[in-house]
Amino acid sequence: MPLSSLVLAAGAGLTGGLAVARDPGTGRARAMFADHVAGEPGLLGAWAVVRARLDGHREWLCIPVAVLLAVLGESVLPLLAGALTLPLTRRWIRRRALRRCRERAADAVTALCADLVGELRAGREPGQALLLVGRGQGALGTAEAAVLAAARFGGDVPGALRKASTAPGLEGLAGMAACWKVAVDGGAGLATGLARIEHAFRAERRGREELRAQLAGAWSTVVVLALLPMVGLGLGAAMGADPLRVLLHTPGGLACLVAGSLMEGAGLFWATRIVRTGETV
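The line above is the sequence of Type II secretion system F family protein; the predicted structure tokens follow.
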């Protein structure tokens, strides 16, 4: 088999592996065994260390692939494509990281509500309970010191919570602030209000997870669309057609490459937008 077909097949496999790596179930399994693998001597431990260092710079994987295609195709066009793909990939990775941070912050707010309800029902005062459960959880964000100071010295706890709720993922603190203010001003039960807020947060979380499970098939379609061009190039190389030479060194091939790239990008953008719209409904 020619070297170009082997490289194209490897590229298709790498792309498929990266697509599978984005699956939430894979991420949860990796997180469960992260400590065990990191402590293993030999190849497993070394691979865990290398992977941890590469996690923050995954977008640079575009460059080796572009260099390989440029060498095989004897053209600078793959290098230009890699340079254009790099910022787009970095933006996509950062958006995914920000979304995960927002979800972790929202989960921390839910856990804070549950812990507060438990402490209040155990007989603690609201300020005391907040001081006990609010430290170091991450649910109060950068305003943790201000919120805890207000709780300790009898300050404006609802105002501090509202200010903390402006951070991404911590919007639920605004509901806590309203519940706290009603309980202080009107004498309503704070534990009851926080329990209702917690149930609402957990229901929203369950709805979001169910929606993602239903959209898993749509995401699989998007991944297949992304892999089809690589599969086609691999089949062409396996048949001896030398698709890289045709695409990079002939006028008709260049026209097909530009038109196909534009249609592929438009199709992926459209499919991704449809799925994202379904996630936000």
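Note on the example: The mean pLDDT is 77. DSSP finds 14 helices and no strands in the chain.
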